[in-house]
Amino acid sequence: MLRLLQTIARATVAELCLGGALLGAASVGGWLNGWLDVVAALAPAWLAISLLGGALAWPVLEPGARRPALVAAAIGVALSAAVVVPELLGALPSPPARHPGPPLKVLTFNVWDDNRHSADTADAILSSGADVVALQEFFGLTGDKLRALHAAYPYVAGCPAGCDLIMMSKRPWLVGGEHTALAEPHDLAIWGETTAPDGAPVWVLTTHYLWPLPPQGQARQRAVLAQVVRGLDKADLVVAGDFNLAPWTAALRRQDAAFAPLTRRTHAVFTWPATIARLDRPAPAPILPIDQLYAGPDWSTVSVRRLPRAGSDHYGIVVTLVRPTRAPAHP
After folding, report:
1. Each residue of 166-222: pLDDT tens digit?
2. Cα–Cα–Cα angle for 259, 294, 138, nearest 5°?
3. Cα 4 vs. chain centroid, distance in angstroms?
4. Taking 70 as the threshold, does the pLDDT of residue 245 lie above it?
5. Residue 302 to residues 70, 127, 152, 217, 308: CA-CA distances in angstroms?
6. How far apart are CA 71 and CA 81, in angstroms?
7. What distance in Å separates the CA atoms of residue 58 and residue 55, rounded to the nearest whole number?
8. What single DSSP character describes residue 98?
9. Which of 129, 174, 253, 316 is most buried by its number of CB atoms within 10 A?
């Protein structure tokens, strides 16, 4: 029995080392193939597997098997870290804005069509302090709390019937209801212009991508949205939504480049799942950071805050932005 357990332990450690290396290679291969990029969405898990395999290889494996296992584990760590570490570095605080004006708070939140606790979701939105709220799967909100949301955010920029995107603002929309189809007729991006607390205009856009399975549908959405963002060409533009893309995927990094000069302000903010859908129970921990917010070069980031779990299968994110006011004149 002892020998059998030793054999199982050695096989398991070897599989961890080799599996981590193969999955790490697949994650890097996302630049070449959309299906491999789906594997890259879980790159932190492959990094953890490689680290675990390497840590166990020395005490568990025999000398003849130890070296190749450690080499495989090192390859897995290097490849997975290559896609994960840059994102973690992006989460480091940025320099504060010089002469900042009043902050703008933008909330992006997939509130879930199957939401069974919409009152909790509405309460979380109301307590967020957001100036502009971009919601996806908006059909999940119903009842008296929805009316309370409309009272707090009386100005609405929505989309045609059948589309479940909406943007709500405390201030009037100067331009609202602009939209375009990304793929199917009801698969839209919507945008509009409102006024930020500093009194100057701000453009806001939101959308909801498909899952990248199969990759082709979402790839079409990304291409169309990149054209929309380039067409708006606003230094004050904010783009937020459920992109169903983890930041260590090649697809999201290509989108980051396509949206320039906008920059992504959400780095490694894990937002899904908040709830186990079929059980209607809290998920132990979110595993994917798939809700993102971009902002134009006029904006500096003050903070990025994830809301508490609140009815949806996603967590909402509030991003606080400031833009500089004109520097005071020197006497």
Report:
1. 999 999 999 988 899 987 777 899 999 999 999 999 999 999 999 998 999 999 999
2. 115
3. 45
4. yes
5. 42, 18, 24, 35, 19
6. 15
7. 7
8. S
9. 316
Q: In what order do the strands lie in the sheet with 165-169?
A: 155-157, 165-169, 132-136, 104-110, 317-322, 300-306
Give the full edge-to-edge strand order of the sheet including 291-295. Answer: 175-181, 188-195, 201-208, 238-242, 291-295, 263-264
* Closest residue by Cα to residue 41 from 52, 22, 27: 27
% of the chain beyond a pLDDT of 70: 97
CA dist 248 and 84 (Å) reads 6
Tell me which amino acid residue 270 is. F
**Are 326 and 303 in contact, with CB atoms under 8 Å apart?**
no
**pLDDT single digits (tens) 76-124:** 999 999 999 999 888 777 777 676 889 999 999 999 999 989 999 999 9
Asked whether residue 325 carries a pLDDT value surpassing 80, the answer given is no
For the entire predicted model, the pTM comes to 0.93
Pair of tokens at residue 25: 């290679």
Cα 265 to Cα 87: distance, rounded to the nearest angstrom? 11
Amino acid at 129: G
Burial class (CB in 10 A: 0-12, 13-18, 19+), 287: middle
Given this model, what pLDDT does residue 331 score? Answer: 44
Which residues lie closer than 8 Å to 216 by C-beta, 6 or more apart? 34
Between 316 and 2, name the one with better pLDDT: 316
CB 125 within 8 A of CB 133: yes
pLDDT digits (tens, 9 = 90+) for 121-138: 999 999 999 999 999 999
Answer whether 190's CB lies under 8 Å from 168's CB: no
The pair phi, psi for residue 213, each rounded to 5°, is: -135, 105
User: Residue 202's pLDDT is what?
Assistant: 97
Buried b vs exposed e over 101-130: b needs ≥16 C-beta within 10 Å? bebbbbbbbbbbeebebbbbbbbbbbebeb
